[in-house]
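Reviewers of the previous submission asked for a worked example of the structure-prediction workflow described in the proposal, so we include one complete record here. The input consisted solely of the amino acid sequence. No template or homolog information was supplied to the procedure at any stage.
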Amino acid sequence: MSFLSDSALSALQLLFQFDPVLWSIVGRSLWVSVLASAIACSVGVALGAWLGVVRFKGRGVLLTVLNTLLALPSVVVGLLVYLLLSRSGPLGFLGWLFSIKAMVLAQAVLVLPVVTALTRQCVEDAERNHGEQLQSLGASAWMRSVLLAWDERYALLTVVIAAFGRAVSEVGAVMVVGGNIEGFTRVMTTAIALETSKGDLPLALALGAVLLWVVLCLNICISALRRWRLRHDGAASEPMREVLA
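From that input alone, the workflow returned the following structure tokens.
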């Protein structure tokens, strides 16, 4: 117990004394996750909204593959990105392996199916309610996807927050493609794994506390958005009512 309490006390000291090593790892981790989430959400929201509206042959197979990718292990994503970026890979000329860019790419690939699948489900539910009316007004599939995505923007904000949470808590892919290089590609999750294996519990506990705090803040934001949407449901659906009027 004395070892655990000493480690916890040392972790608190690292946090409140603003240890430069600790906070550089935190900043790098947040920066990588923000970039990866932005890329994945930019592509995933557009693709998911389109899939929620269009109907074509083979769509069911595509959705099955998409849903399967939701459970894709992060180390498999890391391996695939590693093969792409290795010297003998098709993207080896970029020289991104063991860099921040490779980590951003790996996290974006990992998060993209999550954003696409959740957005598709959200827009498809809205399509059931408003799709026929919009189609009767002459709205194309592309226009319906845009209007419905905008009408469900509060739900999609929740998707964005969830995507960031998935990215910031990821460890396997970024360790494979980033190499966990000190001062360069080391992020919170990989640092926790390394420091725990080394027996440096104070730094691991401090980073774990920060990671838990980030996840807690994300859950608070999601809950706040849900309450906001429930209180302002009428105002949020007003644009759709104007279109359908």
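The longest helix spans residues 100-136. We consider this example representative of the routine output the project will generate in years two and three.
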